[in-house]
Amino acid sequence: MKDQPSPLRETDDDARKLARVLLRSARHAAIAVLAPETGFPFASRVLVATDIDGIPVILVSQLSAHTKALARDPRASLLTGEPGKGDPLAYPRLTTQCLAEPIEHSNPFYARIRTRFLARHPKAKLYIDFPDFLFFRLKPEQASLNGGFGRAYQLDGNDLVIQSAANEEIAARATETVRDLVERHPDVEESLATRLKAPESGSWRICGVDSSGFDMISGDSLLRYEFETLAVDADHICSNISKIAYSIP
C-alpha cells in the first residue's frame, strides 16, 4: 500500500497568526481536563482572558469539577473559535494543549491578571474576589489548528506566546497607555471600529494592549488585532494604534 499523504500543511506565518487570533480573541472556551476519579476526559465551559504574554487565563471556582481536576493533573485542552451560519465545521478553530498554573492572591502577577480579566469580563466583578475563586494561567505546550476544510496545522506552544523583553514594562503601563491614547484622540476607538469593520453592536472600547496587538470590546463582542511586528514599548503601541486608526486606506 502507498503511504497516505499527511493531512497537515506546513505551518507558515499566516497559520500562526490565525492561531494567535483564535486564542487571544476568545471570551470563552471549552476546556477538557482529566477527571481524577476515573481518568475520563471531562469537558466544561470557562471564561477566557489573556495575560500580557498572550497566555490564556481562566477564572474558576474551587468547587467546580474542572478546578479539582486541574489541581490533581495540570494537563488541559482548550478549544477556541466561534462558528457562524451554516456548517460549524467550516469555521476555523484551535485546540491548545496546556499546562495549568494556579495564580493565588499572593502571586505577584495576580493584580495584573485580575485587571486584564475584568477589562474583558466586567460582570465578573460580582464574584472575582470570592475566596473560593482563583485564576489559572494555561501555558500552551502545543496546538492543533483547523483553518477550515483541508487546512490543518500543528503548532508549537511558543507560536502562541508573546516573546518580548518589553512585556513587564508594557504591563505596568497598560492602563495608562490606553487612557492617554484616548485623551489625545477622543475618537480613536470609533475610528478603529470603523477601519477594522467591527460589527455594529454598540460603542467599542480598547480593553487590553500588549506588545503583539490590542483588544477591543463591545458588549459581548471582542475584536483582536495583531500588529505586523512586536511593539518595543508603550509609545510604540500608541503609534501603531494611531496609524491603524488614522492612516489613509
Automatic annotation (TrEMBL):
Residues 12-156 form the CREG-like beta-barrel domain. Pfam families: CREG_beta-barrel. One of its GO terms (cellular component) is cytoplasm. InterPro entries: CREG_beta-barrel, Haem_oxidase_HugZ-like_sf, Split_barrel_FMN-bd. PANTHER family: CELLULAR REPRESSOR OF E1A-STIMULATED GENES, ISOFORM A, CREG1 PROTEIN. This is HugZ family protein. It comes from Rhizobium leguminosarum bv. viciae.
